[in-house]
Design brief:
The chain is mostly helical and about 270 residues long. The chain has one domain. About 80% of the residues lie in helices and about 0% in strands.
Length: about 270
Amino acid sequence: MTVLQRSSVKADDGGVPRARLRRFVPVVLILLAMIAVFATGAHRHVSLETLVKHRMTIDAFIGAHAIAAGAAYMAIYIIVVALSIPGSLFLTITGGILFGVLVGGIATVISATIGATIIFLIAKGACGESLVRRAGPLACKLVEGFKADAFNYLLFLRLVPAFPFFLVNLVPALVGVKLPTFVAATFIGIIPAVFAFTFLGSGLDSVIAVQEGIYRACLAAGRTDCQIHFNIGMIATPRLLASLATLGVIALIPVIVKRLRARSGRSRTAALS
């Protein structure tokens, strides 16, 4: 009997570290995929130059296989977000150029939400709240405050474009935000920015056509230094960013009101006592 108990204890002791290690397998796979993408230079293909070079081929494929083209766009977008590859803003604009505002916007919102959820689940499975618990009581207090109004905080972070998208995917996982809350806040929060940039993209056909003409004329002249010139600042204007930031502030109003009511309630209780 004692021998059996000892053997079971050893099995349990060995099983716990293995279970912990298994949680980090998805993290390792994501990191390896990121390294492969950047090492091979595949991330450079997410650019306006790639779109211009292959525009006619892409348009022909969309015309013949609209559903497959939409699925391919969504798959690329999910991969870019899941691997935190720079270029999601350009892809959002591309969605408007290729598919129009409605189809491009819906496809982008769904794809971005799926990609963000993948990272969230991987980070939550690997670390969860254990990292915060080890950080001390102050960190735990901040986390509890975040979790109490997780939806509104996340909505604010999604609406304001100043916060890196990949970082907003990780932080909620580390502080223990629930999956439905994360998905809902992400889906709703990215809609304004996605449709704003998709709408802008849908009106860029003339700009793309000009750049394509200049680029092909350069190639026809036999030059080897031909480039596409496109300033993303022309699209991400201060006025647009300020509008999105205003939406983010509006999302925090319920949190502020809740805190003020709680503080007022405590003051009344103290006065009565």
